[in-house]
Design a protein that fits this description.
The complex is a heterodimer of chains A (about 240) and B (about 270). With about 240 residues, chain A is of the alpha/beta class. Chain A folds into two domains: about 130 residues, P-loop containing nucleotide triphosphate hydrolases (Rossmann fold), CATH 3.40.50.300; about 70 residues, no CATH class. The radius of gyration of chain A is 18 Å and the shape is globular. Chain B has a single domain, classed as MetI-like (MetI-like fold, Orthogonal Bundle), CATH 1.10.3720.10. Helix content of chain B is about 70%, strand content about 0%. Chain B has nine helices and no strands. In chain B, α2 crosses α5, α2 runs parallel beside α9 and α7 packs parallel to α8. The N and C termini of chain B lie close together (about 10 Å). Classes of the chains: A alpha/beta (about 240), B mainly alpha (about 270). Chains A and B meet through β5, α2 and α4 of A and α6 and α7 of B.
Chain lengths: ~240, ~270
Amino acid sequence: MLKNTNSNNIIQLHDVAKTYESSNTPALKSVSFDVEKEEFLCLIGPSGCGKSTILKIIAGLDAATTGTVATPPNISMVFQNGALLPWLTVYENVALGLRSKKIPDAEVARLVKKHLEMVSLQDFASKYPRELSGGQRQRVGIARALAVEPSVLLLDEPFSALDPKTTDELHQDILRIWHETRVTIVMVSHLIEEAVSLADRVILIKDGTVSEIFTIPLPYPRREHTETFAEIVRRVRSKFFA
Amino acid sequence: MSSERHVGTHRHHTSVSYPMSLHQRIYTLVIVPILGLFLTFILIHAFGSHAESTEISRLSIVGALAATFGRLLVAYVFALLFSLPLALLVTRNAFAERVFLPLFDVIQSLPMLAFFPVVIVFFVHFGMYNGAAIFILFTAMLWNIVFSLVSGLHSIPAEIKAAGHIFGLHGLAFARKILVPASVPYLITGSILAFAQGWNIVIVAEVLHTYLPGSTTAIDLYGIGSVLVHASADGQQQTFLAAILALVVVIALCNFFIWQKLLHHAEKYKFE
């Protein structure tokens, strides 16, 4: 395979494989794809297909066993269960990444305020995570990830523990934030409808390798009840379960 | 990671949850001393001898209790200082865990009192009578805290550690901002266990002469443990009863004013 040198690509994975020490079977066999700047990319696939491993490798939390990975330095992440620190206030949780960058307090305050406003939680700065609902916690997680003003935002099944109404609200929020900040998003999901309603491109991962790449040509906001939407979902679904 | 955090799911509580209500706390403060005294009283009347001799004054019981508490406190501070580095060492990586954890397990399961005669000989050689008791208390307390901390460090969700790495926390900063706060609830339960173990050991650890052949009670340490043992050996019922009561009251007060408050405070550091 030729190395893609398109300068518009912010992330490049080439022939990436991963085998964990504790296992004989590889988590990833060979994964190659690029992520374009400002793109909203979604990785989907059945459980255990390796989609979360790909995200961890992009995040730098795991190293690829073989293959090459090119990523920008400032990558941020939103976790499945929020991963907020229970002993810190909402403010300090959002400031976490800024504090380790030794940013002056006044600038920290400005960035925290700006990003809490972005997720409509400006009035919750002094609350603790346990005082918030699941959706609010996930919003804090999003604000924390955005506060470091990343060039890539990784989302690891961020809506999977939420009820449908909250999930829907957060879908709207994440699309609005994406349009406002133009941050590149790579999201892992196991829901086909979610992927099709949010992403520019959907990559189906099966058995530790890229099985199919779908480009979603629908304009935003996407209407989930239209025939074209249903048609794309059907197409993805047929490959997902093939 | 469990995905238990659905909106509307309530946190699982055991039968006693913290924060305890004031009623519950006062209940423990009152009921424990009453029960302790009642039991001792019954037992003395059923089985005790009736020889009465020189009584130790009330004041000296308070003094003895303070001396013993001081010993426990010193041993606890040492145990605390050693336990965090040891726990961090064990949980540092899989290799360290394979090497050190089985070792700690064996050391922990050794009955330290069996080694007390050797420990005493060593410390007495340097004239450190108190040192002997404090050392034995230290070894009894240390492992309770170490193993509590190890299980605490193990229970930190992978997602939390990942978040630490993503947001730039490494090495000491990671320990200070993630590992230490996450260990707080385990440090407190470990400390409660350590003190319980300490009170248990201190009763015998102060009576040094029983471990040194040819020595007299003169080398025994002044404390509630030696007061209890001597009172019991000499058949001084009232002294014994007063000492037990004082001991139980102090432990109940510690529980009320220290441990219950700390357990309440620890809720803040728990992952859901």
